Amino acid sequence: MCFVRSRQADQPHLCAKMLLFLHPRNRYTTDKSSTHLPQMRAAVRIGKGEFHMARVYNFSAGPSMLPEKVLRLAQAELLEYGDSGQSVMEMSHRSKWFDAIITETEASLRRVMNIPDNYKVGFFQGGATQQFAMVPLNFMTTGKADYIVTGNFSNLAAKEAAKFGEANIVASSKDKNFTYIPDVNAIAYDKDASYIHICQNNTIFGTQYVEVPQVEGIPLVADMSSMILSKPVDVSKYGCIYFGVQKNVAPAGMAIAIIRDDLLGKSAKGIPAEKIPTMMNYTTLLDKDSMYNTPPCWCIYMTGLVLKYLENDIGGLANMQKINEAKAKVLYDYLDGQEFFTNPVEHRYRSTMNVTFTSPNPDMDKKFCAEAAEAGFVNLKGHRLVGGMRASIYNAMPAEGVDKLVDFMEKFRKENA
Q1: Closest C-alpha among 227, 259, 232 to residue 245
Q2: Using alpha carbons only, what angle is made at residue 389 by residues 383 and 395, rounded to the nearest 5 degrees?
Q3: Pairwise CA distance, residues 35 & 332, whole Å
Q4: CA distance linking residue 96 with residue 331, whole number of Å
Q5: Mean pLDDT per 10-residue run, the chain (417 residues)?
Q6: Which residues of 177-254 form beta strands (DSSP E)?
């Protein structure tokens, strides 16, 4: 405790410094003994104001893990950001401090992704699901758009677009339960399509594109929510990239869109631009630099911290890609090397971010998830549309988390085969 002088005596009070654990040491553990299980759920005092922080391996598809270094920095700045005397969660979005935060966050994203100058960057509320409607409202100028349906979210995007015009499903992998990606070079695209829409990584089914459609005169729009910042992307191939941040970037509550200049200032056929609801109009929001109203300030701040981490600690997206591919290889090599667990996705299209697998039967899947959670591997249950298990191994998942998951899977296999 800290003490303050009063007329009567020194009075104890909780000061800001006491809210920050001294040198927190995160302790990932798979020890199932009773002495370790409580530590996976609480801060444990070990003396002299120092705490062990015991953290589980979180394989959630989103919201998901954030880099520990980023969390510690956010913790250190929680009560006072810089010399502002206030938290980022409290400060005005019109303040000089937040203006610097949002400006630097956009600049960092442009550097990390190498975004060309003829693209705008916007920070939006509503998540990627709101983008399903914003895209056709702003871009479906011919009244038509082509959609490639490779999973749940691309299907939802197509259904939303159909409210504003013709959403033509020009290809789908539904015939094999979304376990592959259609050949993008063998698709008959509509020459009158305003754009081609894809979901580049499929969180639920565990697939990813290995090449993307490139049709002259028709811009490509991509939902990159579950693969953004996991590897370099040639932004110039796209008319619009959008993504929810809660999987690989920041806490839930925001979407980011990267839009080529020439696509702005337009609207869906039959809907005048001035009739688009203000908060759904890309041009209006981007003209105000994402500050038309109060933006998702905390998410923008956290995005900035993650981008600095990727840039300065990881060394950029090429290095991040190497780390991610190495992690995925460990898990896929194990799945291919035994017969108890299986992955249904065609090898060529296996996702680096979301690895799906099943055990011999649903009851065994349930048992696996329960025992995995007890051992410190949480959120492995597959999506309700697929069942089985799913390990989301985004940027923040340490390599040791994947290694230890594989060790646990092998132990479980031996005990239950």
Answers
A1: 227
A2: 85
A3: 33
A4: 46
A5: 45 43 39 36 47 80 95 95 94 94 98 98 94 97 98 96 97 96 97 98 97 97 97 98 96 96 96 93 95 95 98 98 98 98 97 98 97 96 92 97 98 96
A6: 196-199, 201-202, 207-208, 220-223, 240-244
Whether the Cβ atoms of residue 44 and residue 284 lie closer than 8 Å to each other: no
Cβ contacts of 400 within 8 Å, gap of 6 or more: 28
Nearest to 147 by CA among 223, 247, 260: 223
- Contacts for 321 with CB less than 8 Å, ≥ 6 apart: 230, 231, 232
Query: pTM score, two decimals?
Result: 0.88
Report how far Cα 265 is from the mean position of its chain's Cα atoms. Answer: 28
Structure tokens at 318: 């090429």
Angle separating helix axes 362-374 and 399-416, nearest 10 degrees: 130
Three-class DSSP category at 395: coil
Q: At what angle do helices 127-139 and 152-161 cross, to 10 degrees?
A: 40
Three-class SS of residue 386?
coil
Closest alpha carbon to 200 in 162, 238, 145, 253: 238
What's the token pair of residue 379? 């959120």
The CA distance from 207 to 14, in Å, is 50
